Automatic annotation (TrEMBL):
Keywords: Glycosidase, Hydrolase, Signal. Gene3D superfamilies: Glycosidases (3.20.20.80). InterPro entries: Chitinase-like, GH, Glyco_hydro18_cat, Glyco_hydro_18_chit_AS. Residues 30-211 form the GH18 domain. It comes from Datura stramonium. This is GH18 domain-containing protein. Belongs to the glycosyl hydrolase 18 family.
Length: 211
């Protein structure tokens, strides 16, 4: 992810946190995040310098609830598939970097901007069905890759803010209660539609967002 997008996400998140009274500030602000794998440019964990005094989160980009068809991908109602560079970012490579650096955690990011050249929409059939499918499919991926958390980066929506909040909030709640993840982060940016959806999430489930 480009530096400009990271900065936009940072300032948008500051705005959202100011808006939400229920958000619990993270205990450790000494965290650096790097999105990796989305551009398929053979970027490896070893290409990124890691400082042992900083908690470093690599975020695999992306897991998307769309079919993997290259010609016409379509929404799958919470059945997530992997869309990152699986040639260079494998389960064994994830385990190796975590073994090498105790300060490193690895997460996956949900959503992203596009899939197959078109916008990747958050498009659930219903809250309960989406959450059930998402919990099942993401638990499998997270355990396969020995991941620590999830990052929410939906940027396009075909659902109202309250539905988004309930789906994502219930997903995070279940994954945490089941011990599948230890943290959840969000990546909003300065767009009215995006802001409204993430504000709804923070209002109802801000206490579950760690950073």
């Amino acid at each position: 992810m480009e530096l400009s997008k990271i900065l936009v996400h940072f300032f948008a998140l500051q705005f959202l946190l100011f808006q939400s009274q229920t958000y619990a500030a993270p205990g450790n602000s000494n965290i650096f995040r790097e999105y990796i794998g989305a551009e398929f440019k053979n970027v490896k964990f070893s290409d990124v310098p890691i400082h042992s005094g900083v908690e470093f989160h690599f975020i695999l980009s992306f897991a998307i609830d769309y079919t993997t068809s290259s010609s016409s991908p379509s929404p799958t109602n919470g059945q997530f598939n992997i869309f990152w560079d699986t040639d260079n970012l494998t389960p064994s490579v994830v385990s190796a970097i975590k073994d090498q650096y105790s300060s490193v955690k690895v997460a996956l990011s949900l959503g992203g901007d596009s899939v197959g050249g078109s916008s990747a929409y958050f498009n659930p059939s219903s809250v309960d069905s989406w959450v059930s499918n998402a919990v099942s499919s993401l638990t499998d991926i997270i355990k396969q890759y020995n991941l620590d958390g999830i990052d929410i980066d939906y940027e396009h929506f075909q659902a109202d803010p309250d539905t988004f909040a309930e789906c994502i909030g219930k997903l995070i709640t279940t994954l945490k209660n089941d011990g599948v993840i230890s943290f959840a982060s969000i990546a909003p940016f300065d767009d009215d539609e995006v802001q409204s959806h993430y504000q709804a999430l923070l209002k109802s489930y801000g206490h579950l967002i760690d950073c």
